[in-house]
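Ticket #4471: structure export looks truncated?
Reporter: QA, pipeline team
Priority: medium

Steps to reproduce: submit the single chain below to the structure queue and open the exported record.
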Amino acid sequence: MKRILLSLLVLLTIALTATAQKNKVKIETDYGTIVVMLYDNTPLNTNNMVKLAKEHYYDSTIFHRCIPKFVIQGGDSTSKHAKPGQVLGEGGLGYTVPAEINDANYHKRGALGVARDQTPDKSGSACQFYIVVGKPFTDAEMDNLTKRTGRVYTAAQREVYKKDGGTPHLDGNYTVFGEVIEGMDIVDKIANEARDKNDRPNKDIRMLKVRMMKKKKRFLFF
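Actual output as written to the record:
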């Protein structure tokens, strides 16, 4: 009996610790702070962002593509010293990260995705990411998406798209590897900035500092 109780305690402690050890990234911007939680089921893309955050890579990069009711995008390696009006979006780090697309991770409002070009294998940029702003979708619109793409949504996913919104037409084509847990109001402010014909904000909106948040471990004692 003692062994059983001890085993249960160990398992419960591990579960509680693992829950508290999610990778969280704090993005400090000109407009305020955004906190994103990275998913465990996308280890390649999650670990890549963790690496770049620890190297302070993102510091001083800008959100170079901002579209209301769609997304804000940033992380271009050439954006730190970009001239006003310069077209951005081509900067990278010389490698791509394999796609980790699955049915569980979808483009709900606040989703964190990997930007990419027309890579046949859907691998994504090593540095550029986007955050979904999105808009609500009706049942009819969701039905049409399913007919067109063949993607089937759970009842819970459909409800999220109807109530909170997102960009479901991106599902299945881009890797979603996290979500905003604090600061969606900041994302909205950035998305609604005046912009040029290439969707670059007229005013540079920088990621002043991007850092990993310290993990907190919680243990249960009897």
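Status: closed, not a bug. The export was complete when the record was re-opened. Leaving a note from the reviewer for reference: The longest strand covers residues 32-38.
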